[in-house]
Write a structure and sequence with these properties.
seven-stranded mixed sheet, four-stranded antiparallel sheet, 10 helices
């Protein structure tokens, strides 16, 4: 791809990024949800989009010849509408792009997402149907159309792979932190420690059910987070700071929990085990 033009809104790849090329009929933008109103023109066209959720999950969609800006704010399945924080949009300037071509490209990008990210949350097309053989037969495209679509797919993958630290934007200092995790039958959450604070990451799950053992103070805190929209539809919509690992765990699970044992480092050692090992 030649004639590549890149705009970094804050001078780094952590902020809004736009890309275009003289040799492609696709332009790309990655922009946080709260900043979309400033970049409506870059999203004003048909194309493919990825909604970024948490730190490693994506939803892949296509516009159905609507604009990306309108489509991303229409209803998606599950908790996606409440939990996505960033859109990676690929706008087509090709005036002849059709619905079947968009479906073909969406299928290929779902296959790419399943292979390269922790979770692809798109349920249609199903993962088993996201294959080259399926899309070549299913979308009733001719040979020339398929080759054109494959060129577009290659361009989109080029844009995605061009991000030096991946498409999920994080400040460098945050990437260097150890991310702890807590996985249970009902919820899965990530967190990190910063000074004397224990911070649950945006995109972590939040149990909507409370057990009788849930402390009174935690019940009040959970209600506050919901009222402030820091939690919506069972997901944290931003990083939330707590005074201790147990407070964070209890808030996430809605029950009495020992956070020192429940939160695990990447090596699966608990906070308590790590502290005992250091002694």
């Amino acid at each position: 791809m030649h004639g590549l033009k890149i705009y970094l809104a804050n001078g780094t790849y952590n902020g809004t990024v736009t890309m275009s090329s003289d040799s492609s009929k696709i332009s790309a933008i990655r922009v946080a949800r709260e900043n979309i109103k400033d970049y409506e023109n870059e999203l004003d066209g048909p194309g493919i989009y990825l909604l970024l959720i948490g730190s490693e999950s994506v939803y892949v969609g296509q516009t159905g010849l609507d604009t990306i800006n309108k489509r991303i704010f229409k209803t998606h399945s599950g908790n996606i509408d409440a939990s996505w924080h960033t859109v990676l949009g690929f706008k087509f300037t090709d005036p002849h792009i059709g619905s079947n071509e968009l479906h073909f490209i969406e299928n290929a990008m779902c296959e790419y997402a399943h292979a390269n990210f922790e979770k692809c949350l798109t349920i249609s097309p199903q993962k088993g149907k996201c294959t080259k053989n399926f899309r070549n037969k299913h979308y009733h495209l001719g040979g020339v159309q398929i080759r054109t679509c494959e060129k577009y797919i290659a361009d989109i993958q080029f844009y995605i792979d061009f991000f030096p630290e991946g498409i999920f934007a994080f400040k460098q200092e945050k990437r260097q932190r150890e991310i702890l995790h807590m996985a249970g039958k009902k919820v899965s959450a990530n967190a990190y420690i910063e000074g004397d604070k224990f911070i649950v990451c945006q995109g972590s799950e939040f149990s909507m059910m409370e057990k009788p053992s849930c402390p009174k103070g935690i019940r009040a805190l959970r209600k506050q987070l919901l009222a402030e929209h820091k939690v919506q539809n069972g997901y944290f919509t931003e990083d939330v700071s707590f005074n201790s690992s147990s407070m964070a765990a209890e808030c996430v699970m809605g029950s009495s929990v020992n956070g020192q044992r429940k939160w695990l480092y990447p090596d699966n050692k608990s906070i308590k085990e790590r502290e005992e090992w250091k002694k």
